[in-house]
Specification:
- The chain has 172 residues and is mostly helical.
- The protein contains eight helices and no strands.
- The longest helix has 25 residues.
- The protein starts with a helix and ends in an 8-residue tail after the last helix.
Length: 172
């Protein structure tokens, strides 16, 4: 194991140890469940579109960016095929065997960027909590979460102009 892998393992072990607190474990399980397949963020984006009629199109495009980021993360995951951590006991079940990048982190960071740009500032700390929960749950290495968050943020940032583009015929 090289130094980077050792650091990844040690950080994960330290964070996973916090999951022994029943309150923390419960919160982590809840965040994992609502974050599965980007459901939390897709629901939030659709809710934003429903209540903010003046910017409905931007909310829907932001939601599409979150979905696109999630799909990109899943594609990378299938290419890389990094196994999930085995040196810690996971708190939650996972939808797949592969770890890199974290799809929860990808969709969360995309939502933080896209929805944060629309004024939903609570998306940022909630996204950070979802990302951290993947480590405390013991289902991702820190590098999986960092890579997923970077991919999600980049995807949303690259789509920012499209998200706000009023010339596409949407009624914002």
């Amino acid at each position: 194991m090289d130094d980077f892998d050792d650091l990844d393992h040690r950080i994960l072990s330290a964070l996973r140890a916090h999951g022994t607190d029943p309150r923390v474990a419960s919160a982590v399980r809840g965040l994992s469940l609502v974050g599965e397949h980007g459901a939390l963020w897709l629901g939030a984006g659709l809710a934003g579109a429903a209540v903010d009629g003046a910017r409905r199109g931007s909310w829907l495009r932001g939601t599409a960016l979150v979905a696109g980021a999630h799909l990109a993360g899943m594609a990378v995951k299938r290419l890389v095929r990094r196994p999930r951590p085995t040196h810690v006991e996971p708190l939650v079940r996972t939808a797949g065997r592969h770890s890199f990048p974290s799809a929860h982190a990808t969709s969360s960071a995309a939502a933080a960027v896209a929805f944060g740009a629309l004024g939903a500032h609570a998306a940022v700390p909630l996204a950070a909590a979802v990302c951290l929960s993947r480590l405390v749950a013991g289902v991702h290495y820190p590098s999986d979460v960092v890579a997923g968050a970077a991919l999600g943020a980049l995807t949303a940032r690259l789509g920012a102009r499209w998200m706000h583009d009023l010339s596409r015929g949407a009624h914002d």
